Amino acid sequence: MEGKKEVKEGNSEQMRQKKITEIHSQYIQNKERHEQVIAKRKRGLYRRLTGAFIVFSFFAFLIITGIAEQLSLLNEKQTEQRELSDEYKALLEEKAQLKDEVNKLKDEEYIGEIARRDFFMSKPGETIFKLPE
Questions:
Q1: CA 46 to CA 107: how far, in whole Å?
Q2: What whole-number distance in Å separates Cα of residue 91 and Cα of residue 73?
Q3: Residues in CB range of 105: below 8 A, 6 or more apart
Q4: H helix count then E strand count, the chain
Q5: Is 123 in a helix, a strand, or coil?
Q6: CA-CA distance, 46 to 40, in Å (whole number)?
Q7: 76-121: per-residue pLDDT in tens?
Q8: In the chain, what are the helix, strand and coil shares in percent, each to the nearest 5?
Q9: pTM of the model
Q10: Angle, helix 2-105 to helix 108-119, in steps of 10 degrees
Q11: Of the candidates 130, 101, 132, the residue with the CA atom closest to the CA atom of residue 122
Q12: How far apart are CA 22 and CA 29, in angstroms?
């Protein structure tokens, strides 16, 4: 009888293990499904975040490139403005000198001075000596 008891006990243990295994495997399966769902959600989240990062990076690149181009253009325009401003000041000085020259040319004494200096003309009875400079 002892042999049968062992078999019955063995059967009983097998049935228990089978029930436990089934319960345990169902729990494991649910747990694995839950973990798969979580892993799938994480993959989806990582994909969305990666996509958003790529789009954000693209727009950031466009904005930074645009700003760099604008700064370059601004520097060129500022340089051009400085050059034109310097040229304008030089032209104003030249204009002032020319106006002064026009006013002086209205004076007969100044015209006579230029004629004597540049063309070696003299008044009647005047002798011109050129001195070395």
A1: 91
A2: 27
A3: 111
A4: 2, 0
A5: coil
A6: 10
A7: 999 999 999 999 999 999 999 999 999 998 988 888 888 888 887 7
A8: 85, 0, 15
A9: 0.49
A10: 100
A11: 130
A12: 10
